[in-house]
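Lab channel / #folding
Pinned by the channel admin:
"Please post every new chain as: sequence first, then the structure tokens as a reply. Keep commentary short and put observations after the output so the thread stays searchable."

First post following the new format, from NK:
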Amino acid sequence: MAETVTLKGNTVTLVGPSLNVGDDAPVARVVLTDLSEKEIGGSKDKVQLIITVPSLDTPVCETETKKFNEMIQGMDVDVTVVSMDLPFAEKRFCESFNIENVAVGSDFRYKDMEKFGVLIGEGALKGLLARAVFIVDKNGKIAYKQLVPEITQEPDYDAVLDALKKC
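Reply from TO:
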């Protein structure tokens, strides 16, 4: 059954499976700011932090990306922030705010984040991504999931950091 979140108090349904801790993380492809592609999810040699946001061109998404960029500095984690923004806009965003510690990728080409169950299926933001955070362990299992219940709110950063320390 699809999950739901709210946008300014109005319920919106997400498209895709409801993934839980312990599930295999699907493999998804995103397009980076240099137009190369990056595979996220699945098993890798590093723990992955996958962060989905509706659009970097909004105050909450901007703040969230900047905070994660600062928080993970020096950590041995593969971090990717994913939105539906075009790579050109993402590149301008990264250059404007010195985003250097996280990869920023676009799901515009494949819409693969539906595999993670975070594609908004209705309402004003239909086709964009819900605000969520996944930690994928080296074996490709979801070790942590935070689906932010209200899209206009930031995630619980402390909970993410605590979960990262356990991986």
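NK: The domain at 4-165 is CATH 3.40.30.10 (Glutaredoxin).
TO: also worth noting, The chain has one domain: 4-165.
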